[in-house]
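#struct-help
A.M.: can someone run this one for me? Single chain, 332 residues.
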Amino acid sequence: MGQNLSIFEMFSKLEAQHIIERVLNYFGNKSEFGNVHWIRWKDLPKLLEMDERTLTMEMESAALRTPRFMSLHEINPMDFLLTLREELTPELINQLIKNKFFTKNTHQKSSLCVCVMPFDGLNPLGLLYFEKCPRGEPEKLVPQILETLRLMVRFIEFGLIFWDSKNLTMMDDLTELYNQRFLPLVLENEISRSKRKNQSFCCLFMDLDYFKKINDTKGHWIGSKLLTEVGQLLKSSIRSCDFGFRYGGDEFVVVLPYTDINGGQVVAERIRKTIEETCFMIDGHQVQLTISIGLAAYPLHASTKEEIIQLADHAMYFGKRKCRNIVYVANS
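D.P.: on it. Structure tokens below:
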């Protein structure tokens, strides 16, 4: 695992996916490890709690998200995370933070987990997990790995910062949901994935009922606070693999991967009921809200990203004209 100038030449882009991929390839080519994995530190607790379906969907839309988890060689990600759940006990995590690595030796295999520390040496950026270490003595490799990571860490850190900064341009400042700019990219990704997997996905278009009246009577400050609270409710009502957007004003969109029309109706009704039953307390003002939701499914109702948004939007307005506080499904 000798050092050479190629370490400085192999990162041709600031994209985090590219940088992590090159890091994994470097260690894979310079050693005899069975596999090498990257896990972003701040996402570790969430990853360890994910069920298989959610993890699979997140991995399939990884190009749209900050790289939480990547592997050099193709694996069943759930099998690997189950192994991590067994190994990363609270005691081992504390040891990892203190010593920057830990090793595990058994008769069958030896593994090594190394902290990827930022240049300032404070909170870890992530972990590199090395499987099937050679010679059964993985701790002997630690000094070389840490020295190589010291040369790479600026690129890793810049890549993650660049990705997070880019991601912020796709976020709505008020609600911390995604903004409308990101929606076409997500819909294109879901259409492509649904075609490959012969699966469905759903789009929910939502509008708060009589929200203008709240702005007019209680003021825009209260209105903005309510939108923030609604955004948090939406985030807590959907899976981590789903996408929530503030479309504009008091309109919201949710994209539900791998979800058929029946599943979409269940989620939409849950959101509608949650909004209806929540008593919002904003600066001493007690406010009740309801929401109207239109639902369209791909490929049942639409074949393009423009069509699915338009049909979900039309279904929502049809529901509003009918009675409001309703989930209305687009016509097939």
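A.M.: thanks! The longest strand covers residues 201-208.
D.P.: also worth noting: The CA atoms of residues 52 and 78 lie 6 Å apart.
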